[in-house]
Recover the amino acids of this structure.
């Protein structure tokens, strides 16, 4: 059903004339007549009857008018909302990692929510491999990753910034006065790592494997807060994004020890399907992240 037929139908009801309706809409009278005939054929009822010189709605026409008026009102509202890109409805699904969810992305989500109070935003954290898969299969509209640069034929990748990884220890750790890290030092240490599959854990393990270095022991946690507390309690060393431990370092709860290796390089980056249609809220979120990130 052509929506224009509804606009024509409403105008005929308003003016009571096919000729006047054609003049107002810029149609030939025959075109107006044809559109009303198609509506009558579709609904299998008579919509107008002639009373004197005017066309008047039949009872069926009055019933249809009620629904047409509601439909066109909603269409006009949708057009206004979408064209103005203001206070849009719908759902935006964003995947990200815990460290970015806790220490980076929330101001941008808050800004978007203020712009679109009726927009439902679902923010889900997970491991980068799972987030990439979720983006590919449509679970997420986009994902914000902390990973090596993602180069995938089906994904658009927008780097936001390169992140600094730091190694942290308790304030009384034996390496507290170290000026330069030799990876051999880690053979006598316990490493407190994020769960398997985390990009910076994978990169650290590859680095140690290349130098044939094995830590004395490894403890794994999925929680960043648990990792930081274990480090503060002198249970071992951890390598984490600087944004996740900045406050603890500044407060003296943990200390940063030298660890600078060119083999470990990760980026905060946006990924979404190349075929993805970017809604105004998605475009606004991407712009905000890339401009201020």
């Amino acid at each position: 059903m052509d929506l224009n037929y509804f606009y024509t139908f409403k105008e005929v009801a308003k003016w009571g004339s096919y000729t006047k309706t054609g003049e107002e809409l810029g149609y030939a009278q025959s075109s107006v007549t044809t559109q009303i005939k198609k509506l009558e054929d579709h609904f299998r009822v008579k919509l107008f009857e002639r009373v004197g010189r005017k066309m008047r709605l039949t009872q069926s026409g009055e019933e249809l008018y009620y629904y047409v008026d509601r439909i066109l009102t909603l269409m006009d509202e949708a057009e206004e909302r979408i064209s103005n890109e203001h206070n849009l409805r719908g759902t935006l699904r964003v995947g990200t990692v815990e460290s970015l969810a806790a220490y980076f992305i929330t101001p941008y989500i808050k800004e978007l929510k203020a712009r679109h109070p009726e927009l439902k935003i679902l923010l889900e954290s997970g491991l980068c491999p799972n987030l990439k898969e979720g983006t590919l299969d449509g679970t997420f509209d986009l994902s914000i990753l902390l990973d090596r640069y993602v180069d995938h034929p089906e994904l658009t990748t927008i780097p936001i910034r390169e992140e600094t990884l730091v190694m942290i220890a308790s304030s009384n750790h034996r390496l507290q006065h170290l000026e330069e890290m030799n990876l051999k030092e880690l053979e006598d240490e316990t490493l407190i790592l994020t769960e398997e599959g985390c990009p910076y854990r994978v990169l650290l393990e590859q680095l140690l494997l290349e130098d044939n270095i094995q830590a004395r022991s490894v403890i794994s946690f999925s929680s960043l807060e648990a990792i930081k507390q274990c480090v503060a309690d002198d249970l071992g060393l951890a390598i984490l994004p600087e944004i996740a431990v900045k406050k603890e370092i500044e407060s003296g709860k943990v200390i940063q020890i030298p660890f600078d290796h060119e083999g470990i390089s990760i980026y905060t980056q946006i990924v979404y399907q190349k075929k993805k249609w970017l809604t105004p809220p998605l475009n606004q979120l991407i712009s905000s992240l890339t401009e201020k990130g």
About this structure: The radius of gyration is 31 Å. Residues 3-84 form a domain with the Arc Repressor Mutant, subunit A fold (CATH 1.10.10.10). The mean pLDDT is 90. The chain has three domains: 3-84, 91-162+267-292, 164-264.
